[in-house]
């Protein structure tokens, strides 16, 4: 495990109460009046630690009180807390025995930046992709009821105001009252996604108020009935309906959750820890699904983050005293791929009025914001709804528009059938722009975009392309709007390219045509995407060893360049395929199948992500671990050459 420079962080600072808490059981020994101090110490710890070893900041800062209250009131880990997305769970990590390891957060071999059941029994479910907590927690609550667990197990889903708008969350809510369960949903409403939160539910939540008088009346009524032993399975529904009618009278609005028969409590101040503890104590033992609505401030307790929560979602290193963030040089530096995408799309949209942009809650992350600023009427932020985003694009394309739908590769996994059913079968000209393709680094196992080549290749009629550099990305984006070729996916990586001078005039690329980058006779390397750069370094080394290597950039995984493959087969030399995706079903598979299907006996070595889930760490560390770095490619060239002799 890598040793971290920890000079100014948590170790040197003093946290008198936090240091006594090695598990939630220690927290529960404290009197409730001490919890405010625990919260303050957690915040200070996060500021000190994350300023030096960066990660997700603002969400965890805003969730401190609810985290402390949950571990204080519930008997974790027996009771389950399911965190949605999981980027707000750093406080939870600190309270559950991982304070001393927090300096390794997001580092290779260190703590995961998200809850991870392999890391701790307190991390009850995989988190990273939004909106799964209600369904997962409901499953756990139902499992507990079916198995008549004793003592009764409480199950809590913690979900943000943006994540609850995802389709999967709605499906969970819809199903929540259909079975016997003891589910509690905590809605952590900070009126923010990563960027501004959007959508009708967001506006609804912003205007949702419940009178104090009503809340007090209901608690008292419930407590009284409980005391009189009148709350049981038979009376529960009646009480709920009675409550709802009173509430409609008092508040003059139908509560959306109560309309679904989920008891609603709130909204309460999510930073008043003692109050949250009291409310949780009151509603903890109620039967049936309940939702507690807490209003919180993203970045709470750190003024720069409160003032600009979007920039402080994951701010990188910063000075804890001033809030100054480490700035990156701009002049003469290669651009980020996302910015090449964003600026090129704007350029194309200026001259093609049919072009529209779609983002699923990631305008900044995908740089769709660039077009959004200049042509807001033609960019749609549809919220966390990758499936809807794709089907919506299908509808737009069906009636004449040219949608560019920019989604992180791993999040697009949520929309697989939408791609097939709502786009590909109808051959609609939707361009899927897959950002963060390949190994992404510190976000880890849930976020690596390594499955897309494989899962898109199997879809009939789908064009699947990956540029090796910024200029090819521009040309592919240009190509996808000049003719109607049906659906096209263009995948590109996280981070920067190589070429500061990328803004050259665009030209169309022939669909399904690769490029010979250099000729050679001993070994042929076929790569796709920016892996071409590593291949180039490996070839330079191999040439120094006296091996003559041909290098082809396939550009398209589908359709395959059959002429190019025939040329390679005719060489009669060993072939190495190189891709930054899972080997099963990707470029290596496609090339092997093609040689086999066309009767060519070619020895193929496949380099790519092995058949396992890749953890978190720096990209070069993970590439090395997967046997995909320049050294591994060089070694494969040398071995292939040897075995051919
Ligand atoms: C399926 C999916 N789409 C997009 C994302 C990227 N993403 C991570 S956090 C986030 C915003 C979450 O907002 P919210 O649920 O309100 O939590 P907050 O950060 O405000 O606490 C988004 C869009 C994701 N993790 N998963
Ligand atoms: C929690 C989440 O899913 C995002 O915040 C993600 O960490 C963003 O990663 P990028 O830094 O690649 O935009
Ligand atoms: Mg939010």
UniProtKB/TrEMBL annotation:
<dbReference type="GO" id="GO:0008661">
    <property type="term" value="F:1-deoxy-D-xylulose-5-phosphate synthase activity"/>
</dbReference>
<protein>
    <recommendedName>
        <fullName>1-deoxy-D-xylulose-5-phosphate synthase</fullName>
        <ecNumber>2.2.1.7</ecNumber>
    </recommendedName>
</protein>
<keyword id="KW-0414">Isoprene biosynthesis</keyword>
<keyword id="KW-0460">Magnesium</keyword>
<dbReference type="InterPro" id="IPR029061">
    <property type="entry name" value="THDP-binding"/>
</dbReference>
<feature type="region of interest" description="Disordered">
    <location>
        <begin position="298"/>
        <end position="333"/>
    </location>
</feature>
<feature type="binding site">
    <location>
        <position position="190"/>
    </location>
    <ligand>
        <name>thiamine diphosphate</name>
    </ligand>
</feature>
<comment type="pathway">
    <text>Metabolic intermediate biosynthesis; 1-deoxy-D-xylulose 5-phosphate biosynthesis; 1-deoxy-D-xylulose 5-phosphate from D-glyceraldehyde 3-phosphate and pyruvate: step 1/1.</text>
</comment>
<comment type="subunit">
    <text>Homodimer.</text>
</comment>
<dbReference type="Pfam" id="PF13292">
    <property type="entry name" value="DXP_synthase_N"/>
</dbReference>
<dbReference type="InterPro" id="IPR033248">
    <property type="entry name" value="Transketolase_C"/>
</dbReference>
<feature type="domain" description="Transketolase-like pyrimidine-binding">
    <location>
        <begin position="335"/>
        <end position="500"/>
    </location>
</feature>
<feature type="binding site">
    <location>
        <position position="190"/>
    </location>
    <ligand>
        <name>Mg(2+)</name>
    </ligand>
</feature>
<dbReference type="InterPro" id="IPR005477">
    <property type="entry name" value="Dxylulose-5-P_synthase"/>
</dbReference>
<comment type="function">
    <text>Catalyzes the acyloin condensation reaction between C atoms 2 and 3 of pyruvate and glyceraldehyde 3-phosphate to yield 1-deoxy-D-xylulose-5-phosphate (DXP).</text>
</comment>
<keyword id="KW-0784">Thiamine biosynthesis</keyword>
<dbReference type="InterPro" id="IPR009014">
    <property type="entry name" value="Transketo_C/PFOR_II"/>
</dbReference>
<dbReference type="InterPro" id="IPR005475">
    <property type="entry name" value="Transketolase-like_Pyr-bd"/>
</dbReference>
<keyword id="KW-0786">Thiamine pyrophosphate</keyword>
<feature type="binding site">
    <location>
        <begin position="162"/>
        <end position="163"/>
    </location>
    <ligand>
        <name>thiamine diphosphate</name>
    </ligand>
</feature>
<keyword id="KW-0808">Transferase</keyword>
<feature type="binding site">
    <location>
        <position position="386"/>
    </location>
    <ligand>
        <name>thiamine diphosphate</name>
    </ligand>
</feature>
<dbReference type="Pfam" id="PF02779">
    <property type="entry name" value="Transket_pyr"/>
</dbReference>
<feature type="binding site">
    <location>
        <begin position="128"/>
        <end position="130"/>
    </location>
    <ligand>
        <name>thiamine diphosphate</name>
    </ligand>
</feature>
<feature type="binding site">
    <location>
        <position position="161"/>
    </location>
    <ligand>
        <name>Mg(2+)</name>
    </ligand>
</feature>
<dbReference type="Pfam" id="PF02780">
    <property type="entry name" value="Transketolase_C"/>
</dbReference>
<feature type="binding site">
    <location>
        <position position="87"/>
    </location>
    <ligand>
        <name>thiamine diphosphate</name>
    </ligand>
</feature>
<feature type="binding site">
    <location>
        <position position="302"/>
    </location>
    <ligand>
        <name>thiamine diphosphate</name>
    </ligand>
</feature>
<comment type="similarity">
    <text>Belongs to the transketolase family. DXPS subfamily.</text>
</comment>
<keyword id="KW-0479">Metal-binding</keyword>
């Amino acid at each position: 495990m890598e040793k971290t420079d920890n000079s100014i962080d948590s170790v040197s600072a003093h946290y008198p109460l936090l240091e006594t808490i090695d598990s939630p059981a220690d927290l529960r020994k404290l009197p409730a009046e001490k919890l405010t101090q625990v919260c303050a110490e957690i915040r200070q710890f996060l500021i000190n630690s994350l300023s030096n070893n960066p990660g997700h900041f603002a969400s965890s800062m805003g969730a401190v009180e609810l985290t402390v209250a949950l571990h204080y009131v519930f008997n974790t880990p027996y009771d389950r807390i399911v965190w949605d997305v999981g980027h707000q769970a750093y406080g939870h990590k600190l309270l559950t025995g991982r304070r001393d390891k927090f300096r390794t957060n997001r580092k290779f071999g260190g703590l995961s930046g998200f809850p991870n059941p392999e890391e701790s029994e307190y991390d009850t479910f995989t988190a990273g992709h939004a909106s799964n907590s209600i369904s997962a927690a409901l499953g756990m609550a139902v499992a507990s009821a079916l198995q008549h667990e004793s003592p009764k197990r409480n199950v809590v889903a913690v979900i943000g105001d943006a994540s609850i708008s995802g389709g999967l969350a709605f499906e969970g809510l819809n199903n929540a009252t259909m079975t016997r369960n003891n589910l509690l949903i905590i809605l952590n409403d900070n009126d923010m996604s990563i960027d501004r939160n959007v959508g009708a539910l967001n506006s609804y939540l912003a205007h949702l108020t419940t009178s104090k008088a009503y809340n007090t009346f209901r608690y008292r009524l419930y407590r009284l009935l409980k005391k009189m032993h009148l709350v049981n399975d038979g009376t529960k529904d009646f009480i709920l309906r009675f409550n709802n009618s009173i509430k409609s009278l008092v508040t003059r609005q139908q509560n959306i959750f109560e309309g679904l028969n989920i008891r609603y409590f709130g909204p309460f101040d999510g930073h008043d820890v003692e109050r949250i503890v009291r409310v949780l104590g009151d509603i903890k033992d109620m039967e049936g699904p309940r939702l507690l609505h807490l209003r919180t401030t993203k970045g709470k307790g750190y003024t720069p983050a409160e003032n600009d929560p979007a920039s402080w979602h994951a701010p990188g290193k910063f000075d804890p005293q001033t809030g100054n963030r480490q700035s990156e040089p701009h002049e003469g530096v290669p651009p980020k791929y996302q910015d090449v995408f964003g600026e090129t799309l704007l350029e194309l949209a200026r001259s093609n009025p049919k072009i529209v942009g779609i983002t699923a809650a990631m305008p900044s992350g995908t740089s769709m914001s660039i077009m959004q600023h200049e042509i807001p009427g033609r960019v749609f932020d549809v919220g966390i709804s990758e499936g809807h985003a794709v089907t919506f694009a299908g509808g737009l394309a069906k009636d004449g528009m040219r949608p560019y739908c920019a989604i992180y590769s791993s999040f697009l996994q949520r929309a697989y059938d939408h791609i097939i059913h709502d786009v590909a079968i109808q051959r609609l000209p939707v361009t899927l722009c897959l950002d963060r393709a390949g190994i992404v680094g510190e976000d880890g196992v849930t976020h690596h975009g390594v499955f897309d080549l494989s899962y898109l290749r199997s879809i009939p009629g789908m064009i699947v392309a990956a540029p090796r550099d910024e200029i090819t990305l521009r040309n592919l984006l240009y190509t996808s709007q000049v003719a109607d070729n049906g659906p096209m996916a263009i995948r590109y990586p996280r981070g920067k390219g190589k070429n500061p001078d990328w803004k050259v005039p665009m030209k169309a690329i022939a669909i399904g045509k690769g490029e010979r980058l250099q000729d050679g006779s001993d070994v042929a390397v076929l790569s796709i995407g920016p892996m071409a750069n590593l291949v180039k370094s490996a070839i330079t080394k191999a040439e120094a060893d006296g091996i003559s290597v041909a290098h082809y950039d396939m550009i398209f995984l589908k359709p395959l360049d059959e002429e190019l493959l025939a040329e390679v087969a005719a060489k009669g030399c060993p072939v190495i395929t190189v891709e930054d995706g899972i080997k099963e079903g990707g470029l290596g598979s496609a090339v092997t199948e093609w040689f086999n299907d066309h009767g060519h006996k070619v020895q193929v070595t496949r380099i790519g992500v092995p058949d396992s889930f890749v953890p978190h760490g720096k990209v070069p560390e993970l590439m090395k671990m997967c046997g995909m770095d320049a050294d591994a490619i060089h070694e494969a060239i040398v071995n292939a050459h040897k075995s051919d002799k």
